[in-house]
Write a sequence for this structure.
């Protein structure tokens, strides 16, 4: 089974995607994390990618395609793929359908975790990321054990969680990413979940609706 997780920034899709990927052993593709690690590396495109991330803009399509293809071609076809943060536009959705079709696969579910925009802004302002291991906490919904990460690392607020960048990211989500979910609904593979429930309740709903257990 191949699944896409969508949802506006702060919807908790990363938390849910990670829970499902670990428990049900998916090949887990975390687009944002991959782009962040490239932006911190000595890759020749690092500075260009960092600029887009810090501004809250999408990285150009040619890089998303390369990175997604690199992941899909190197990971086991015997396990399902779980895509988090990709695709974020209709063009990327079609790219992904084509890439999976090369090995006779398809997208089975597109899950959209929905929360109101005011809630996104509220949650993102409370997000803290560990400088050492990259783990993401939320001071409201998923707080760290102390003022440091579980690994002992310092916690910081991401550049793209600053108000201007948040607004830009939500605008891109509405205009470019949400249409992917609308398309999935017309294909009969869209599943909308209320993201304002507890982490456990959302997880239970996903597991039950996808018949995972
Ligand atoms: P995230 O951590 O999911 O919010 O992603 C952080 C940033 O990585 C985004 O704001 C984009 O700049 C970049 N990014 C992540 N996924 C994609 C994607 N599918 N297409 C283009 N850019 C992306």
């Amino acid at each position: 089974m191949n699944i896409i997780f969508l949802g506006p920034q702060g919807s908790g899709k990363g938390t849910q995607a990670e829970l499902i990927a670990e428990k049900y052993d998916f090949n887990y593709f975390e687009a944002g994390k991959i782009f962040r690690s490239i932006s911190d590396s000595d890759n020749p495109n690092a500075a260009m990618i960092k600029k887009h991330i810090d501004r809250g803009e999408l990285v150009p399509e040619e890089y998303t395609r390369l990175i997604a293809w690199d992941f899909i071609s190197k990971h086991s076809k015997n396990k399902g793929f779980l895509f988090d943060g990709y695709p974020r536009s209709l063009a990327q959705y079609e790219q992904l359908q084509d890439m999976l079709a090369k090995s006779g696969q398809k997208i089975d579910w597109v899950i959209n975790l929905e929360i109101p925009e005011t809630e996104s802004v509220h949650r993102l302002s409370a997000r803290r990321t560990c400088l050492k291991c990259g783990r993401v906490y939320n001071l409201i919904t998923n707080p760290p054990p102390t003022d440091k990460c579980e690994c002992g690392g310092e916690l910081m607020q991401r550049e793209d969680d600053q108000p201007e960048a948040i607004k830009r990211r939500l605008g891109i989500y509405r205009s470019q990413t949400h249409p992917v979910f609308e398309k999935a609904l017309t294909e009969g593979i869209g599943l909308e979940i209320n993201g304002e429930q507890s982490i456990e309740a959302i997880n239970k709903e996903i597991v039950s609706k996808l018949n995972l257990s």
Summary: The pocket of adenosine monophosphate is lined by residues 9, 31-32, 35, 52-53, 56-59, 64, 85-88, 92, 160, 169 (CB under 6 Å). Residues 3-117+177-209 form a domain with the Rossmann fold fold (CATH 3.40.50.300). The two ends are 13 Å apart (CA to CA). The longest strand covers residues 109-114.
